[in-house]
Each structure stands twice: as C-alpha cells, then as structure tokens.
Write a structure and sequence with these properties.
Distance between the termini: 72 Å
Mean pLDDT: 87
Helix content: 10-25%
Length: 485
C-alpha cells in the first residue's frame, strides 16, 4: 500500500512538473531550447541552474557581478559558501537543499568564468546604434544626462529642468542644457543593498510652494545592530538647495535587511500622496500584518503627512491609518491612469509572478498567500501558497519569468500617437523597455523595446511630451525622440 501511495505521489508530481514546464515553454522567454543549449556547454547543468535560479537577481549574463563590491569574497570557496548558506539579511537565499555540493561548485566555476567573459557578452549584445525601429515608430535615444551611477528617479521642473536621484545618495539638478549640479541638503540615506536615495516627486502646487518629496532608506542604531526602513522626506527646493527638511512618514518596524524598500510615490488628482513600502524580505510576517506594521503596504497621506479621514483602516484598532492596501511584496513602479485617475503599480514577484495591479482602497493583494512565482530555491513559497484565494485580488497581469519591473508610466499626447494609452515599464532583469497595450484593463499585446540597453530603473513622460528613461551603470538618462520615417 505504501509503495502504491508513493508511486501515485511521484506520478502526480511529475505530471504537475511537466504541465508547468510545457506551459512555461510555450508562453515565456526562457524556452526549452535555450536551456537545452546551455546544458550542452562544457559546464553542463551549471549554466541552466544559473539561468533558472540566479539570473533574476544577477542578470542572464552575470552583468550584475561586474564592478561590484564583493562583501563576502569572490574566490571559489567564497562563492560556494554564499550559494550554499546564503545571507538572509542581504536578500541572498540558501540553496543547500536545492543542490548538491558538487553542483554548487559547478555553479561557482560557471560564475567565475562568466565574470571573465562578461565584457565580450556586453560588447556583442549592446546596441550599436541609438536609432531603433519598433513595431510602429522609429525612435532615437538622445542622451540627456550622463555620468550617474544608479539614477533611481526623475522629476521635471518648469523650464525643461530636471531633478534626479542617484541611489548612491547624490541628488542632482539638471539644467535645460543637460548640465547637472549636486543639490545640498538631501537626506542621509543608508546606501547598502537596495537602499539609498530613491524616488522624487513634485508637490502638485510646486510652482507656488516649491515643495518636493524624497523617499529613502533611513537608518538607526539599536544596540549593536544597524537597522533601516523606508522614509518620506518633504523639503523646499530653491536656489539649488533644500530647506525645511522634514520626514513626514517613517515606516515601522525598522529591519536589519537591506532590500525590498518599495519607495515609489505618486500624487492623485485630489492631491493625496500614495507610496509603496516593500515587505523588507520578511514575507511571513509583514505584508498581512496590521498592528504596528507598515511593511508590504501601499500608503496614502496628505502632503503634510496627515491622514485622510476616508482611508480604509483609520478605524481599525492597531493599524497604521496611512495604509491604503496590503499584501504587497516590493512595488517598484507606480503611476496614475490619465483617464480614470486610478493608481497603478507593478511589483516584483519571487521567481516569477511579477505583477501589475490597480490599487483599490482596503484590498488585499495576497502576498505571500497567493503568487504566481516560486521561491528562489525552486520550492513553493509555502505549503498553503496558491495562485488565487477568496478575498484576495488577482493581478491585472503577471510576468513569468520575472522581468524585474521598475518605473512605469502611461503614454499620452501627440508625440507617440501609435502608443497612445499604452503602459510602459522598465525591466531590470532583461534590460529593456516593456510596452503593454491595455484594453478594458487587460494587457492584449507586449513589445520589447531597446533590448539590452541596460537596467532601466525609471520611466517618465515629461511636460514637454517626451518620454525619458533612466538606465543604470553607467547611469544615463535618455529622451525617446520619434524619428520622421
């Protein structure tokens, strides 16, 4: 009887695996043929394991390893230890249960070889021209700002000027001629992991009050431990300086982790400020918890930090009254629909299951109880994790494999008539701009734009009607200029 039961379980597991694999093979970018070709290399399965388990964070061709600071060493034994045991506070999971020691050493060797070859990959794969023919428009990428590190966000001032945050903590004013100058008085951010100086938005009344808002990773010392959290600062920007700096929101609780800060901000048409706070890597506790917990949530406040009286959890005992929705993982893009005025966001799934959501007051977006992704070690997020559950919102759209979505905006105006109403999002993992055609709140078509241009961190449409993208390392801001065919 026991043998019969084990056989049934094994057959069922294989059936599910084959169904999932075939579904992925037909729908998604990481195809069977690609994996098979990788397995035929001298590194055998190591290349396939890297693509499946590691490339979501480190890039398909290990470009995320280039010029990085190796906190835990870059020798073969160091890589073995990192892969086998992980570093929980740094967002690196342990793979000791997923691979044998021999397989971990093979992956370590593959990474070391890949690092040596990454320059060759970059040279052969990077675009050779700044002119790109898309499905409907020819676009020229004009360099507007260069010499940055990781430009995280852009905000557009009157007179075709710009504010730019760099995750390394620098804050810049860019003149209409593209000359950048450092702004004094930016918040002291914890520049570590995914933390640093993050988003920037203007107050809806900026021409009158000169107020801006900055999100950043705020630190504090607690005993011997260095902690951090997501904070929102308001300040006045005049004459190249910030003044009157004040934190109008500090998410609790602080955490020792250095990832999943969220930090995107967006004003709605009524003048309320929405912003995201990631789960800080603790999905078992934060996203579904209300009492004393701001993490894994979308928040809504007034420009001075006070709470709108119609927020959904104002009267919920122990809940932060700023919470607008919950059950989020790490929202890295946020925008407002030009017609409906609804707030849209995108967020990172684990391994698969990146989402686009329309944010509605009081709704539960399910993380981690529902997700279309799996854990980085190849196992389900939990024994009871499902793709849908009553009382939890389904994403408008989900990406598997993960593209690592970042900044997002809707296209409006006459500059890009063929893209009118489309949603465009940056991809960190695959280094391209994603164009989504939206009809009746459904994605009906997608196009990959500017493949391998670099990790696109932010996407904005400026008052001049042009779309601008911020690309990482070397940090560059481009303007998308339509070319008359």
């Amino acid at each position: 009887m026991l043998k019969y039961l084990i056989t049934l379980i094994f057959i069922g597991s294989v059936s599910i695996l084959l169904f999932s694999f075939n579904k992925t093979k037909t729908k998604h970018a990481v195809t069977y043929s690609k994996i098979k070709s990788l397995q035929d290399t001298s590194f055998g399965k190591a290349a396939a394991h890297f693509q499946t388990y590691c490339s979501g964070c480190h890039g398909q061709k290990m470009n995320a390893f280039v010029d990085r600071e190796w906190k835990h060493g870059n020798m073969r034994t160091d890589l073995f230890k990192s892969i086998k045991n992980g570093y929980q506070n740094g967002g690196m999971p342990a793979f000791d249960s997923a691979f044998t020691d021999q397989e971990i050493y093979q992956i370590s060797d593959y990474i070391l070889t890949g690092i040596k070859n990454v320059d060759r990959y970059a040279a052969s794969d990077k675009p050779t021209s700044n002119v790109f023919k898309t499905e409907s428009i020819t676009i020229r990428l004009d360099t507007v700002v260069k010499g940055l590190d990781i430009p995280w966000s852009m905000a557009f001032l009157p007179g075709n000027e710009m504010l730019v945050t760099d995750r390394n903590g620098d804050f810049y004013h860019v003149s209409k001629n593209g000359v950048k100058s450092k702004i004094e008085g930016a918040p002291q951010a914890v520049v570590d992991g995914q933390g640093g100086l993050l988003d920037v938005v203007l107050d809806p009344e900026y021409p009158k009050n000169k107020l801006i808002y900055l999100s950043y990773s705020k630190g504090k010392k607690e005993g011997t431990e260095d902690l951090a959290t997501t904070a929102i600062m308001r300040a006045k920007f005049e004459n190249g300086k910030l003044s009157g700096q004040k934190d109008i929101f500090v998410a609790g609780p602080y955490s020792a982790t250095r990832h999943h800060y969220g930090s995107r901000m967006q004003f709605d048409k009524a003048g309320f400020l929405y912003f995201s706070v990631g789960d800080r890597g603790n999905e078992k506790q934060n996203p579904q918890q209300f009492k004393g917990n701001d993490l894994g949530k979308i928040h809504r406040i007034k420009p001075d930090g006070s709470i709108p009286t119609d927020n959904p959890f104002v009267k919920t005992s122990g809940a932060s009254p700023s919470i607008y929705s919950y059950g989020h993982r790490n929202p890295q893009g946020m925008t407002i629909h030009p017609l409906t005025g609804k707030i849209w966001e995108n967020e990172h799934g684990p391994r698969g299951g990146d989402e686009i959501n329309i944010i509605t007051a009081g709704k539960n977006y399910g993380w981690p109880e529902i997700t279309y992704g799996i854990n980085y070690n190849g196992k389900p997020m939990g024994p009871n994790t499902k793709t849908e559950k009553e009382g939890m919102e389904q994403p408008l759209f989900q990406w598997t494999p993960s593209i690592g979505p970042s900044g997002m905006t809707f296209v409006i105006g006459n500059k890009y008539k063929e893209w009118e109403g489309n949603l465009i999002s940056g991809s960190l993992r695959f280094q391209y701009l994603n164009r989504s055609v939206i009809k009746d709140n459904k994605v009906t078509h997608e196009e990959i734009l500017f493949k391998n241009i670099g990790r696109i961190r932010d996407v904005r449409q400026a008052p001049d009607g042009f779309i601008y993208i911020a690309v990482e390392s070397p940090g560059t801001i481009y303007r998308l200029s339509p070319v008359n065919n």
